[in-house]
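> run fold Probable sugar-binding periplasmic protein
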Amino acid sequence: MTALKAMVAAGTYPTASQMLGYTVLDYAEAGVMGDLTETAKKEGWDKSVPAALQKFSVYDGKWVAAPVNVHSVNWLWINKAVMDKIGGSEPKTFDDLIALLDKAKAAGVIPLALGGQNWQEATMFDSIVLSTGGPEFYKKAFNDLDEEALKSETMKKSFDNLAKIVKYVDPNFSGRDWNLATAMVIKGDALVQVMGDWAKGEFVAAKKTPDTDFLCYRFPGTDGSVIYNSDMFGMFNVPDDRKAAQVALATATLSKSFQSAFNVVKGSVPARTDVPDTDFDACGKKGIADLKAANEGGTLFGSLAQGYGAPPAIANAYKDVVSKFVHGQIKSSDEAVTQLVQAIDDAR
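> ok
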């Protein structure tokens, strides 16, 4: 992003750059993005790309970015052999999850694999807030940034639930990369990871199969909703001699064949809702069905931790407060709520 900023400032725009939603909108507002509308119309993107993604890939009526995928963050990834060993079953509520983590602890297995980095902690907290408060509350607090929701008893309870769950991590979690936490679950050193579906890419790379080697469940209490982020190719306003290449890249990116082939490997799901799920494994099929249902039901929400709930300054303020709470620098859920409201206020 730093290199991109320097290129744009110097007027040497790249043909395309991989970006997240609010960054696309920032550059579009600055008037430096290209226009893919003709291609989008010809290929029917407006009918196949979920409206939540179009909010970031279309600016002022023009298509300026091509979405590559849809990731969702409200997942549990569980080692099946460990689950069988402890006699566990799918947790349907937050209390069920705590009971499951207790079983793992009693069996001498690390219950929760987590990397102590602010984005990982906040990604998990996204799911906890949705589970604790429900879909309308999540939207109000983390997409609309409604102050009443942010300072409510429900948000306080969400922080209480975060305090409960982080007691199940191992002492060495601080600074651990997300993929190393995933590896703990793959190897059976830990029972569960709460992480976006890019974690599934690690299981696939390790030649593991859903329902045989690992289990994928929605975070308890969030079934029916999807908290998403999406990788996009933002397209810049380049000279005519580079526009054909740009259109070719955009067309290829949103082709059904690419959307299937890429997302099968990445762990995410297609950025269009008309791609067959034929080549996807059980978790991918569930992800595709969940996205379709959430898109139709109005329960597809931008992840605040992943840069789709609010602009970067607000997302960074949020991650900072959540991390301070996890690492004991903020001592109570009351104080956490006060600091969250203040930090978001300052970031606005």
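The chain is about 55% helix and 10% strand.
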